[in-house]
Write a structure and sequence with these properties.
This protein is α/β, with parallel strands linked by helices and 331 residues long. It contains twelve helices and seven strands.
């Protein structure tokens, strides 16, 4: 019997639906079709000028043409330390940070670092399409915990407890949520964190959308509200969404030192270091103020309100149309 040409592990992984939809939308737009793509979480603003300038300046520095430390440029890791304290009020050290090639790589490496074959990972649904694939690549078993619109797409501790088994090792937590946008309240975050501590469950918390908040919502970092989880918690983040830098490919992991060291060893064989020019751009982003971020946020909020208004008008019109049709059919 011939052996399969593609390994079972890789053959079991589906294409990223997000990128497939995004590619289709861009192809239609390039062909002149009036398309607005909602597939990828990608700001349509250019990267702020001061960040682009930092990258341009970095290209002429010979040191940036070389290999650099796998966990990230020292200046980059320190910028992440300062940014995390400023934005999340969470004090960390540089040796708790690993800079990755985009936030997606940090997701993959986090699961690879702590999940063994057969371990179950609780995955609140709806979820971003790459989460279950990264779990499966690590040998883990995704266990969906579904929350619908009646509970604002937010899972409860009771739901998590019902899904927990002896094989449960990790909870994936994402707030603000990708793809629903729902945000857990501080009370909900605290309750989930305390539940995880009680049962010795790791939490991988994705904070990539931390600054995309509206109507006074807040998204406190889990280990800030539940300090006891810190030794079993990995925080994922990056510059893609906040600074309109999706193409620059800079993300990071924050976690216990032993996990970060293990992930650094992994990355040393996987991809060495992140592009130095991209890191220099990210340093400028993180060390700068948030004025450009707030300006983009205001634009996103205007669009959010507009689309909600248009959808409500459409639903109202459709309801009236159905009423007219039902009346005519009665007559």
């Amino acid at each position: 019997m011939s052996k399969p040409r593609v390994s079972r592990r890789i053959a079991s992984i589906a294409e990223s639906a997000t990128l497939a939809v995004d590619a289709k939308a861009k192809a239609l737009k390039a062909a002149g079709r009036p398309v607005i793509g909602f597939g990828a979480g990608e700001p349509d603003f250019p990267t702020p000028d001061y960040i682009v300038k930092a990258a341009a300046d970095a290209t002429s520095v010979v040191a940036n043409h070389r290999y650099t430390p796998t966990p990230g440029l020292p200046e980059m890791r320190e910028a992440i330390v300062k940014k995390t304290l400023r934005d999340s009020h969470y004090a960390i050290t540089a040796d708790q940070v690993l800079v990755t090639n985009g936030g997606k790589q940090s997701v993959y490496q986090s699961f690879a670092a702590i999940v063994d074959p057969g371990d179950e990972v609780l995955l609140p649904a709806p979820y971003w399409t790459s989460y279950p694939e990264c779990i499966k690549l690590a040998g883990g078993v995704p266990v969906e915990v579904f929350a619908d619109e009646t509970q604002n797409y937010l899972v409860t501790v009771d739901q998590l407890e019902k899904a927990r088994t002896e094989k449960t090792k990790v909870l994936l937590f994402c707030s603000p949520s990708n793809p629903t946008g729902s945000v857990y309240s501080p009370e909900q975050v605290k309750a989930i964190g305390e539940w995880a501590v009680k049962h010795g469950i790791w939490v991988i918390t994705d904070e990539i959308y931390e600054h995309l908040l509206y109507d006074g919502a807040t998204a406190p970092s889990l280990p800030v509200l539940v300090p006891a989880i810190a030794d079993h918690c990995i925080i994922l983040n990056g510059v893609a969404k906040t600074y309109a830098m999706t193409g620059w490919r800079v993300g990071w992991m924050i976690g216990p030192k032993d996990v970060i060291k293990a992930s650094t060893n992994h990355q040393s064989h996987l991809s060495s270091n992140v592009s130095n020019v991209s890191q220099r751009a990210a340093i400028a982003a993180l060390n700068g103020d948030l004025s450009a971020v707030h300006k983009m946020g205001e634009a996103f909020d205007r669009r959010r309100k507009l689309i909600v208004k248009l959808l409500n008008e459409f639903l109202a019109f459709n309801a009236q149309l159905q009423l007219v049709r039902s009346t005519l059919s009665i007559r």
